[in-house]
TrEMBL record:
Name of the protein in question: Carotenoid 1,2-hydratase
SUPFAM superfamilies found in the cross-reference section: AttH-like
InterPro entries: AttH-like_dom_sf (IPR023374)
Lineage: superkingdom: Bacteria
Length: 58
């Protein structure tokens, strides 16, 4: 699962990096998914929560 994202909105002067801390946040089951707290840095800052589905198990 990706752990870091770069989000850029040039027309709005927004440049963000969203990242999850190290750790294993995978959840297995009938519908496997990954979830984690995230932090946002760059032109804006904050915290949040990310949940991802649809990735192949490796």
């Amino acid at each position: 699962y990706p752990r870091r994202w770069q989000i850029t909105l040039p027309g709005f002067d927004v440049n963000l990096e969203v990242s999850a801390p190290a750790g294993d946040y995978r959840n297995s089951g009938l519908y496997p998914y990954w979830e984690s707290p995230v932090s946002v840095t760059g032109s804006h800052s904050g915290v949040g929560y990310m949940e991802l589905t649809g990735y192949q198990a490796q």
